Batch of 2 targets.
Target 1
Amino acid sequence: MTGPLLGWMLVVLGVGVAGGNLLRMALVRGWARFEAAAEAVMGGGMAVMAAPPTAAHYGTYSTWWAAVFAAFCLGGVALSVRHAVWGGLRYLRHGGHVVIGSAAMVLMTLAMSGTTSSPALALAGSSGHGGMAGMAGMESVGAHGHGGLAEAAGSSGGVLAWRVAFWALAAYFVIFMALAVRARLRGRDGSRPAVAAGTRARHRHARRRPSLLTVPNARLAGHVGMGGSMATMLLMMAA
């Protein structure tokens, strides 16, 4: 039961990521809405990818899923370039998370096998095991034959290179998740706007409204859920 249970836990995280970013889409405008939309689609994709009943069907249509995530990746590149042109190279990181997240989703999608097809990206090599043990759609190439990029990744060197890439992406998401929590605790995510002295005095005794459904909280929930689920799935696929 470990495999299906973990799969359903990842489904819950993916749905939470999608829900949190859909909420953020309703609260923000401009390019921030694009970022929220991209992360919402990633969360939904992870939920479908991890759910035992739909994992194999996800792999069957992996080309279409990969195309969607690749489009978001290109949009993230455009976002980063736009911020860099307007604010300098130090703003190049804006949109970078969308680029890395979308690229990770493309790689994980290509590593999924379908109901009758082999994965385009084989990580199992000659070991006969494809990570994500216990979850449908992540079977070895030997069980389905060779397809797409499987032959290119079939050598031990190629498999090791792709596994290192997956491990590096998993480490990125763990670090990103920790930095998101740290920024939220220190109020560096825009959650503590400056208040004028007169305005502060005038609203000192005003009734406080619940601040749970705010953009910073929705962003934090989405980033923590995405970081945890992405890192888990990447490590399982590279195992």
Target 2
Amino acid sequence: MSLQSEEMNFHDVVRTLEEFTAETILTSLNFIPKGKPIPKLWIVAGGGWKNPVILNTFEEKLALKIPGCNVVTAKALGWNGDALEAQIFAYLAIRSRKGLPLSLPMTTGVPRPLTGGKWVTPFQWRLELAGGS
């Protein structure tokens, strides 16, 4: 089914994506090693949390999995969530540029420490767009 289908209108598609976003974040619980404590306080930051449907859906689903947990926005703690998100991406970009791991077996279950991304200069990007290598 395409997103242009008569069976799904724009609001259905957006709501599905909001639900998917909340569920995807909840899958992080699967990576907590057995015997380790499950966080009771979740601090969320970044632009996506400005969407009240995503935030409320996440809070409701998390409460079902972890009774008594709290979800607070970085903004509620006096932090600049947008700046924090930008800093996180900058940190990951530097690690990627240096070939350092972004993902570790103990945090995500990957088989070995892995870096991520592909460094592309503007010149390389233009070549790839033009069909060159």
